[in-house]
Structure formats: structure tokens, C-alpha cells
Specification:
InterPro entries: DUF1289. By secondary structure, the chain is mainly alpha-helical. Helices cover 42% and strands 0% of the residues.
């Protein structure tokens, strides 16, 4: 059995605006059909992923307690 190349980086969440995964840039359909695609089909999609990821709006990172406290101190000192 041969391993199937995959762009998955285990950051599996879909950008609702573009429909692309935040981690790999594939659509839901491409992710679910990946195993049944030919090598050529997978390569064609993989060739598009970098450009797709440029259009994905990155998820805002959650503000940590430390960052929030630092921001609040900075605002209080103004």
C-alpha cells in the first residue's frame, strides 16, 4: 500500500468567507474526496493551495490573560 501525499497540517477549520481550510487551503469536498482522487488531481489542487491560503482571513488569536493584562496596564498609564 502506498502513502497518499496530503497537505493537511491538522488545523482543520473552514473559513466561511472563502470555503477554504485555514490549515491546508482545500475545500470540504476536496478534503472528503482526497483519498479517491488520482495523483494528478491531487497535484493540481496542491498547486493552487498557496494562492488560496493568501485569500483566507486568518482566525484572530485569542487574547491571553498575560497579553490582556499588559494591554490594560499600557492603557491605564496613558
Amino acid at each position: 500500500m502506498t502513502a497518499i501525499e496530503s497537505p493537511c497540517i491538522l488545523v482543520c477549520s473552514i473559513d466561511l468567507k472563502t470555503g477554504y481550510c485555514f490549515g491546508c487551503g482545500r475545500t470540504r469536498d476536496e478534503i472528503s474526496d482526497w483519498i479517491s482522487m488520482t495523483s494528478q488531481q491531487r497535484r493540481e489542487i496542491m498547486g493552487q493551495l498557496a494562492a488560496r491560503l493568501e485569500t483566507v482571513e486568518r482566525k484572530p488569536r485569542r487574547e491571553t490573560r498575560r497579553a490582556r493584562m499588559a494591554r490594560e496596564r499600557a492603557e491605564a498609564s496613558r
